[in-house]
Amino acid sequence: MKARIRMCCAVALALSTTATAAWAQAPAPAALSAEDEAKLAPVAPELRDAARRAMGFSKMMGPITEEAVRASRKGGGGFPPAPERLAEIAVDERMIPGPQGAPEVKLFVINARAGTPRPGILHTHGGGFILGTAATDVRRLQELARELDCVIVSVEYRLAPETGYAGSTEDNYAGLRWMYGNAATLGLDKARIAVMGESAGGGHAALLAIAARDRGEIPLAFQLLVYPMLDDRTGGVTKVPPHIATVGWSASENQVGWRAFLGQQPGTASVPTRAVPARTQSLAGLAPALIVVGGVDLFVSEDIDYARRLNEAAVPTELLVIPGAFHGFDQLAPATPQAQQFNKAKVDALRRAFQATK
User: Fold this and answer.
1) Does the bond joining 161 to the residue before it have cis omega, within 30 degrees of 0?
2) Is residue 79 in some structural domain?
3) Where would I find the Alpha/beta hydrolase fold-3 domain in this sequence (predicted)?
4) Bridge pairing between strands 188-198 and 151-156
5) What is the helix (H) or strand (E) element at residue 36, kind and residue range?
6) Per-residue pLDDT tens for 83-123?
7) Tally of helices (H runs) and strands (E runs) in the chain
8) If phi over 0 gives left and psi between -120 and 50 gives alpha, with beta otherwise, what is residue 254?
9) CB 177 within 8 A of CB 339
10) Alpha-carbon distance 259 to 248, whole Å?
11) Are residues 61 and 174 in the same domain?
12) What single-letter DSSP state applies at residue 171?
């Protein structure tokens, strides 16, 4: 049972883009039925092998539940090994004061170097609010820091269900405030800070952009939201077409994640608006944004709608939807043309944002 829970978490991490290492090291997935194979028809041909493997893992392990997540943590976390780090890009693991009355927050500080101020990124990892660890993203963030000559701080925020939205969002804000306050030591230009995250981390990045606007303490130059998890109603009161989310993060798992994060049933009128980016009444005054998502990702409709609302609120917003791409495809099939287009768009957008505020 313990091994099954650990493998379930490892596979879920891979599918939520936080642990490509788990994907490579996991055993062969279960065989697919003819019915399962038919569900792959909406997936782009170049992505079907990765999708088939992802679907086989999901079939073998079954759905993610809050009970399995809690049991995994008691059994040691269930996290796979993090990819080997680049020796030439410095990584400093720091503990900083957390929110008032809360534990310290762990940060991974990447490519810090006092001297000429460079742009910076505050990163929040994915995992459906209930899984994941910042450590598994360090190698990928090192590569991004090298490409953009920037400093990146990734936050090890507390996870649900043990910690709800108020705690994890404040953990992330504490990381952003520390980053801003230590700009000189980090070699950071305070005018060129972006927030970035994938999946649930994209939701956290969106919440950070909203908090930064509302509190008026830290100006942001950009927000990069990668298939962000923005709306608690998706997969619950808001149904999705049958060809959507047949691979990767499912509607039922999405509801598990949101229920744990909110501490209550998602999709109801009593859900606090400050916990859900899509429920934020006004998006005016937020940092410019790029939202990138796959065309058969569970989050595609909510992401398109959030981009529309940002644009209508006069926030400069770019939206990229990759046809036939599923949730986490860029991590699971990085050599495909779709993943290369996706990743290039992210880097180009960050570079433009940093140059515009230089």
Assistant:
1) yes
2) no
3) 121-329
4) unpaired
5) helix 34-38
6) 999 999 999 999 999 999 999 999 999 999 999 899 999 99
7) 13, 8
8) alpha
9) no
10) 19
11) no
12) H
**Coil, helix or strand at residue 49:** helix
Q: What is the pTM of this model?
A: 0.93
**Of residues 224, 217, 136, 125, the one with CA closest to residue 177:** 217
Are 184 and 269 part of one and the same domain? yes
- Residue 74 or 103, more confident: 103
- Is 252 in the same domain as 135? yes
The angle subtended at Cα 106 by Cα 20 and Cα 149, nearest 5°, is: 65
Amino acid at 237: V
Q: Where among 45, 74, 103 does a domain terminate?
A: 74
For residue 80, what pLDDT is reported?
64
Neighbouring-strand partners of residue 123: 154, 196
The string of pLDDT tens digits covering residues 19-70 is 454 554 555 566 788 888 999 999 999 999 999 998 888 877 777 888 888 8
Record the tokens describing residue 328, joined without a space: 């986490």
Q: Report if residue 240 sits inside a domain.
A: yes
Q: Look at strands 188-198 and 118-124 and give their pairing.
A: parallel
First-last CA distance in the chain: 54
Specify whether the backbone of 175 is left (phi greater than 0), alpha (psi in -120 to 50) or beta.
alpha
Q: Which residues pair with 153 in a beta bridge?
A: 109, 122
